[in-house]
Amino acid sequence: MQIAHIIGGIVSIVGSLFLLLGALGIVRMPDAYNRIQAGTKATTLGTLLFLAGIGIAEPGWLPKLAVLILFILFTNPVSSHVLARAAHHIGIALTSRTVADKLREHEEAARD
């Protein structure tokens, strides 16, 4: 029983580190699109690891945590995609270091 708590704690700490890295990515990235991407990837993995660590430490909570994990797996990527598309649609500028805007190219090709 004690070893499960230790392993669960370690997995939860690793998840917390990914959440911290996601927060740092949001601060450090140059534009909204990169911030959305950095935040989503790191927080999805961080949250999943954190919840998995809790599930390892407390196996009785695993069914409820599995539902939360599935919800996060489906909603985080979809919501970030929608936010990025909305930002692009209203014209939020990309960073000057961006070399291609494939969505704009696709939209222009569709209009022609």
Characterize the structure shown.
By secondary structure, the chain is mainly alpha-helical. The protein has one domain (2-111). Helix content is 82%, strand content 0%. It contains four helices and no strands. It has helices spanning 2-28, 32-57, 62-90, 102-111. α1 (2-28) packs antiparallel against α2 and α2 packs antiparallel against α3 (62-90). The longest helix is centred in the C-terminal third of the chain and has 29 residues, at 62-90. The termini are far apart.
Topology:
Elements: H1 2-28, H2 32-57, H3 62-90, H4 102-111
Helix pairs in contact: 1-2, 2-3
In short:
With 112 residues, this protein is mainly alpha-helical. 82% of the residues lie in helices and 0% in strands.
Low-confidence stretches: none
The mean pLDDT is: 91
Domain module tally: 1
Note the main sheet: none
Fraction of residues in helix? over 70%
Which strand-content bin applies to the residues?
under 5%
Structural class: mainly alpha
Number of helices: 4
Kindly state the number of beta strands.
Answer: 0
> H/E order of the elements?
HHHH
Evaluate the radius of gyration. Answer: 18 Å
Shape: elongated
Measured distance between first and last alpha carbons: 65 Å
Describe the structure using short key phrases.
112 residues; elongated
